[in-house]
Each structure stands twice: as structure tokens, then as C-alpha cells.
Design a protein that fits this description.
Layout lengths: L1 H25 L6 E5 L7 E6 L9 E4 L1 H9 L3 E2 L5 H4 L10 H4 L2
Length: 103
């Protein structure tokens, strides 16, 4: 009786490990750059983040390196935590705090 329980537990653990490995292999790649989208008609872009930034909101879309550079040079804000402007070697952007931009 105990041997059957132990065998069943081992089989369940192996199955979970196989499923976890399958999930890791099928997970889509993390995007390199992300644009956070705002609320409203058309969801206008609000801020640019690096792909691994944890400060981005729930509304977002992945973008390529060229589009991220274009958006930043066009005046879109860069995240102050992950600093995509520095990672993209864009110099001379004004770093205004969010409260000063709202005035």
C-alpha cells in the first residue's frame, strides 16, 4: 500500500517537472524594449521601458530598438528606473520629473 502511494507521488512530481520544462521552452522571448500605453482613444504611448523593467504598467506593447530610439528622440518620456535612453545611447534628453511635466 505504501509503495503504491510513493510511486504515485514520484510519478506526479515527474509529471510536474516535465510540464514546467515544457512551459519554459514554449514561453515567448521577452521583448527588448516596451512602450507603455496610456488611457484613452487610441491608447497613446506614454513612456519607454527596457524589456525587463518591473515599473511598467499593464497596457504595453513591444517595440524594436529603432522604434524605441525614434520615440525617445521625438520627446516620449524614458522610464527613470530602467533608463532606456542611456541603454540606447541617446544623449541630451531633458530629464524632467513627472510632476514638472504636468504643470
Amino acid at each position: 500500500m505504501w509503495l503504491e502511494r510513493i510511486d504515485a507521488k514520484i510519478a506526479a512530481v515527474r509529471q510536474r517537472q516535465l510540464e514546467a520544462e515544457h512551459g519554459r521552452r514554449r514561453r515567448p522571448e521577452q521583448p527588448e524594449w516596451i512602450v507603455e500605453l496610456g488611457i484613452g482613444t487610441g491608447h497613446p504611448p506614454v513612456q519607454v521601458h527596457s524589456g525587463d523593467c518591473r515599473m511598467m504598467g499593464k497596457r504595453r506593447r513591444p517595440v524594436g530598438r529603432d522604434e524605441a530610439r525614434r520615440l525617445l528622440t521625438a520627446g516620449l518620456r524614458a522610464c527613470t528606473h530602467c533608463q532606456p535612453d542611456t541603454a540606447l545611447d541617446i544623449l541630451g534628453l531633458s530629464t524632467r520629473p513627472a510632476c514638472a511635466a504636468a504643470r
